[in-house]
């Protein structure tokens, strides 16, 4: 059971990844993203998730450097964007991201979306980066079961992580079962349903029962499902609130009630219908 913000999960290649991280999607480059990362690190977060597409890698890197926290205590994730996919283009994109972040290596590098006809060549580039020591673990984002099956059929290094949309309205049961069998760690993006957790009566009711906010309840639900979770916020009080999820446990019957909210509803785009 996850009991502390410093607790980590063991990935399939032996690397340890924090269960909780800060997502910085839509955090503006410069002061906004720097302050968000600074606040998170002060609260105790040690994992930050960014992407080339977020256009804030420089700010993230600056905040990490200014923190004075030892590099080996941090876990930094970024992602290759769709227009940079392919073998050579991905290698170049990684180098740009790494330099913007100001790091000698990254902890996790992900394929942001499964671009048809491209992601296998992109994966070969990630395998090279992994073998050459530029990144400690490689993975994917927004991959459905069929994408993973295609990748696993030809890859030399299996993905360590699959970052997907996951919340009580989208419980991804088939994908969770598949990733469990293949030892691919799932990670939840948009865990708070873009703020819609407060609009679900069952979530609000159970949050009151546990003396927590709806956001804290759902993030704890993530962890109890074995999901790494990366709620995004630039508001200091929310960043701190999202980390206060390690002092309670949701009972099995209440986990089941939350699971029962599933509608296979997405707030983001479906990977099979993304306009690449």
TrEMBL record:
Pfam families attached to this UniProt entry: Aldo_ket_red
Keywords (A to Z) from UniProt: NADP, Oxidoreductase
NADP-dependent oxidoreductase domain: residues covered: 27-262
Domain of life: Bacteria
Site-annotated residues for Lowers pKa of active site Tyr: 79
Sequence positions that bind substrate: 112
Record-linked PROSITE patterns: ALDOKETO_REDUCTASE_1 (PS00798), ALDOKETO_REDUCTASE_2 (PS00062), ALDOKETO_REDUCTASE_3 (PS00063)
Active-site positions on this chain: 54
InterPro entries (UniProt xref): AKR (IPR020471), Aldo/ket_reductase_CS (IPR018170), NAD(P)_OxRdtase_dom_sf (IPR036812), NADP_OxRdtase_dom (IPR023210)
Keyword NADP applies: yes
GO molecular function, one term: oxidoreductase activity, acting on the CH-OH group of donors, NAD or NADP as acceptor
Family to which this protein belongs: Belongs to the aldo/keto reductase family.
Listed name of the protein: Aldo/keto reductase
Origin organism lineage: Bacteria, Bacillati, Bacillota, Bacilli, Bacillales
């Amino acid at each position: 059971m996850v009991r502390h913000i410093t607790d980590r999960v063991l990935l399939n290649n032996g690397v340890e990844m924090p269960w909780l991280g800060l997502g910085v999607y839509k955090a503006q480059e410069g002061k906004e993203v720097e302050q968000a990362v600074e606040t998170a690190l002060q609260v105790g977060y040690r994992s930050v998730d960014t992407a080339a597409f977020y256009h804030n890698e420089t700010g993230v890197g600056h905040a990490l450097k200014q923190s004075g926290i030892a590099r080996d205590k941090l876990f930094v994730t970024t992602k290759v964007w769709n227009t940079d996919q392919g073998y050579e283009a991905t290698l170049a994109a990684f180098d740009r991201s790494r330099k913007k972040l100001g790091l000698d290596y990254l902890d996790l590098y992900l394929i942001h979306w499964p671009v048809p006809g491209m992601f296998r060549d992109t994966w070969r580039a990630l395998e090279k980066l992994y073998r050459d020591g530029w990144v400690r673990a490689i993975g994917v984002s927004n991959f459905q079961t069929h994408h993973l099956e295609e990748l696993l059929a030809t890859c030399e290094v299996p993905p360590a992580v699959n970052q997907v949309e996951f919340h009580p309205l989208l419980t991804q049961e088939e994908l969770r079962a598949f990733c469990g069998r293949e030892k691919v760690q799932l990670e939840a993006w948009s865990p708070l349903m873009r703020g819609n957790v407060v609009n679900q009566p069952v979530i609000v009711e159970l949050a009151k029962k546990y003396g927590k906010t709806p956001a804290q309840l759902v993030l704890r639900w993530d962890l109890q499902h074995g999901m790494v979770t990366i709620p995004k916020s630039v508001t200091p009080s929310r960043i701190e609130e999202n980390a206060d999820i390690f002092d309670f446990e949701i009972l099995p019957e209440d986990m089941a009630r939350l699971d029962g909210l599933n509608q296979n509803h997405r707030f983001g785009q479906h990977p099979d219908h993304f306009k690449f």
